[in-house]
Write a structure and sequence with these properties.
Number of helices of chain A: 18
Radius of gyration of chain A: 25 Å
Number of domains of chain B: 1
Strand content of chain A: 15-25%
Strand order of the largest sheet of chain A: 6-7-8-3-9-10
Helix content of chain A: 25-40%
Helix content of chain B: over 70%
Structural class of chain A: alpha/beta
Number of strands of chain A: 20
Structural class of chain B: mainly alpha
Oligomer: heterodimer
Distance between the termini of chain B: 60 Å
Largest sheet of chain A: 6 strands, mixed
Shape of chain B: globular
Distance between the termini of chain A: 21 Å
Largest sheet of chain B: 2 strands, antiparallel
CATH architecture of chain B: Orthogonal Bundle
CATH topology of chain B: ABC transporter involved in vitamin B12 uptake, BtuC
Number of strands of chain B: 2
Amino acid sequence: MAANAAIELKNITKTFGHVCANHNVSLKVNRGEILSILGENGSGKTTLMNMIAGIYFPDSGSIFIDGKEVVIASPKDAFQYKIGMIHQHFKLVDVFTATENIVLGLEEKYDVKNASAKVKEISEKYGFEIDPDKKIYEMSVSEKQTVEIIKVLYRGADILILDEPTAVLTPQETQKLFAVLRRMRDDGKAIIIITHKLHEVLSLSDQVAVLRKGEYIGTVKTAETNETLLTEMMVGKKISLNITRDEPKHPEDRLVVEDITCMNRDGATILDHVSFTARSGEILGIAGIAGSGQRELLEAIAGLQHIDSGKILYHNPKTKQTDNLRDKTPLQIRALGVRLSFVPEDRLGMGLVGNMDIVDNMMLRSYRRGKTMFLQRKPPKDLAETIIRQLEVVTPSVSTPVRRLSGGNVQKVLVGREIAAVPTVLMAAYPVRGLDINSSYTIYNLLNEQKKNGVAVIFVGEDLDVLIELCDRIMVIGSGCVTGVVDGRTATKEEIGLLMTKSVHEDMEGGADHVETGEKNA
Amino acid sequence: MITAFIQRAVMQGIPLLYGSTGEIITEKSGHLNLGIPGIMYVGGISGVIGAFAYENACTSAGHGMNGALAILIPFLSCLLGSLLMGLIYCFLTVTLRANQNVTGLALTTFGVGFGNFFGGSLIKLTGSELPSITLTKTSDFFRTSLPFAKSLGWFGQVFLSYGFLAYLAVAIAIAAAVFLSRTRMGLHLRAVGENPATADAAGINVERYKYLSTCIGSMIAGLGGLYYVMDYANGIWSNDAFGDRGWLAIALVIFAVWKPGIAILGSFLFGGLYIVHNYIPNLDFSKQELFKMAPYLVTILVLVIISMRKKRENQPPQHLGLNYFREER
């Protein structure tokens, strides 16, 4: 047996601007071994893998393949070292067949029949189920993923990196994928898989490397660990942030979500019987792995997402009436006197128009109030100036296109505008993403102020430390289901971390199954 | 009369076939070149300039014209003119990533102006009374038909009676169809137009494919202008006589659902619809104009049908009209 690892990273560091994405990461994978990389959102997993795949270049540190130091400057280099990465977002041409996608970019003789035969051969070897002549747009997500995997195998890869391959799969499809991965491992390939899901880590991998906020925490043998130990490594010890949190004053139910279910366009369930209550004068935190349905939940409340079943009841504090917001358009919701201010995740995409200046962006919310056919620019201009002053927005002037401002300042403009609408329910999704510490605290204070004014605040966040210090209650969602609601004052990070990585389906279907496979591997 | 109609329809269709084959190859790379009418116009006038220079040189030297040169000179100057137009379009939209629609429309305006300016200048040089340039001698070379065209009755008239450029148009369209569906480069080109990011990740040089397909497409389209002057119009150039054929070629691309093979038949159909009013007796002027609308109506009909059928293969390339910038997310 050769003692050299298939691939080894030593002291890899990568920074983007002032943000350190990876700091001194070292890890290695042997042939015939599966390594899981575990970490929360933003812990630097994908960045690290992109450096192996040649998409990014490390600032310092070295990469060894079979014991030899190598420089991977481009995806082509990575391919030469037989490294294949399967990205989270598929890179496939929709109107092409599986085979056409697989041979795309290769220099060999163009012969579809030959290529199809080779694809079939690979599929049979590892147990893929694929029709080489099927068009991509007719395929399910898992079939597309299969095409991506065969694509790298066709090119002869023997070090495979999979970036959250199970995020888009059903439990059954996941089991199939794992069976294939095990077969590849037994065939002597080195496999690195990125995932958030603890039970997958335990059932599939031989080793687990844990990253937290870009720091390399350590590698453990899967056989010698368990969910609790891994969660601790993943979320770390609690850090005190000193965010003020007052007791809620006279909380009353403002928004009662009862059992809502939503499907996306492909017919997959994105919100599965979600129920919760948001109270006035309280901050309700929503925690969960990115893409578990947070965005859809907020959009459903704001009237931007079609709801298949369930109710959203809004208790109007002025009229004391109760309205069902379901299936109302955003405008009808406003006309009812229901004020939902929505800070979308994608700031420039849905919140603001990048090419318009701050004043014009203010007007997007208020143009209906005008009485004449001409715009009144004075009130929005005053508002823009107030926001710039109060939130310390750094901008050359009120007439600068929003696109030119830095991320933090864009966020302040957006949150400021939403708060100026004097909402009764304020929903904010990742409002501090990409902001520096000071700007973050400005936003926390704004939210706290709204809470004091009796607004029901819903805060979707990714940093558990912040959620625990800022929120009165924290609801955790996983794969579109509510997996638990905890009290922000007593909750621990481990508790939330465990809730985040569990999903209701797994308990029902995959639970027993995974213990079994876990033992087989050990 | 039917044979004459078919013959005229084919001759009407050939410029459209050149234009749409060129545009299909261009659009397959994701670039919507609305400059095609202008490029065809420039292709025509460039050929005229080449032919004019050669004919004049021969006349003043007092010797007869060499057949090969009489064809080759206009042919090459046409290719050069349309290539330059294609390069302008590529530089603006691929390298500088300017808006494709605006660039294309500007190029059409420019091309027509360019053609009319040089057309007008040449007319002045000849000192002719009529507002046109007559290059009958050169045209005769271009219109040389296949042998037996006259002796085989209707068969000869329908299939053999055209100049070589007509057969070249069909050959290019067939070659384009084979290239797009059967070759690796064709596969890569289609990938660039469908999803340039994917093509880029697969190691395909996206910019090179865009440049090559747009420039080759422009040169093919330019030949449509050359055919129009030298063959269809018997070597007589007058300003604006080319008419709306460029736009019709773009409509034909949609009609042919981006398949050069269908474009061959479509071009003859469009050609027929374009002149059918001449073959219907007792039509007054206004009714003739109504008939001229037919090709566009058919195009709209095809658009409605393909939109209703929603078959993905019949849709335009997914990234048509969108410029590609790798670092954009």
